[in-house]
Amino acid sequence: MHHLQLTNAAFEGRNSIYLLGAGDDAAPTTLVDTGIATPSVEAELRAALEDCGASFAAVDQILLTHWHHDHAGLAGRIQAESDATVHVHEADAPIVAQDPDAVASMEARQADYLDEWGMPADKQAELEDFLQTHDDLQGETADVTPLTDGDTVDLGYFEAEVVHLPGHAAGLAAYAFEYDGRREAFVGDAVLPKYTPNVGGADVRVDRPLQQYLDSLRRVESLALDRAWPGHRGPIFAPTERARDIAAHHDERTDRVVDVVRKRGPVSAWEVSAALFGDLRNIHVLHGPGEAFAHLDHLVHEGVLEATDDGYTLA
To answer: What is the overall mean pLDDT for the chain?
Structure first.
């Protein structure tokens, strides 16, 4: 396996792309994720593949961990040159395929949430400008082959099982496998070595985003992985412990949210975001209040808070 890292200035830093089976007639040439669809990143990926004895045209299949542009952006371009099969979980398949109805539905839901979260008009305009400026990152349309939880994908010397881990994205999926006595998985952004993956803003299609993400973290624990290969930075050598650390981080953040509501309530998700994260720019204008909403929504379902016309208050 080759671990390739690509520049990504738009989102969370360097993307990790994984190449398997290059130059091996007994295994399909497989890419796990692709990077954003910018000319510079495309050139980087082409050069990295060439160094490994591969090319866009040589790719047999692409496994996408989720729909976000920094993971799926170049899938359509690679498929156009190779006729590769593009796999992605069924929940994200319409977005990767750029189905007009699915995209319009997501955009409408996002617009509704921005109002519901109490985001000021100038910040909504700032966010809209950022998103329009970065529209090209999604790349060309791909013809996708949907996967569902429990499916397997042939990687030559072993099969990888699809493990649905919603939260950061509705269709985020890991590809888990056992090789040389070790249990490993390509986990995308389900678990990251440094950052805590955003929930709530990163994919507004996810209902009860924090609860779903906490359930996914517990599922990562149940996989008992020896090593995880994330979508950013380097490998995670203690995935179970990292999943527990992220869950503990969300517990601490929930306490902070309750404290903000206690001192300032009734408050909106935007006001809670400002208390937690301060002034935000670019994509974080969406991610900050989305994260705050995920925690507020979770606390409402747990009976700790109430959602009123004036904002969130203690129950």
So the answer is: 95
Confidence (pTM): 0.96
For the stretch 223-261, pLDDT in tens is 999 999 999 999 999 999 999 999 999 999 999 999 999
Q: How far is CA 140 from CA 78, 136, 206, 275, in A?
A: 9, 9, 24, 39
Write out the two tokens for 310.
Answer: 């004036």
Domains in the chain: boundaries: 2-314
Can you tell me the distance from the alpha carbon of 244 to that of 254, in angstroms, rounded to the nearest whole number?
15
DSSP H helical ranges for the chain: 39-51, 69-72, 75-82, 93-96, 100-116, 121-133, 209-223, 239-264, 269-277, 284-301
In whole angstroms, what is the distance from residue 199 CA to residue 87 CA?
23
| CATH of segment(s) 2-314 | 3.60.15.10
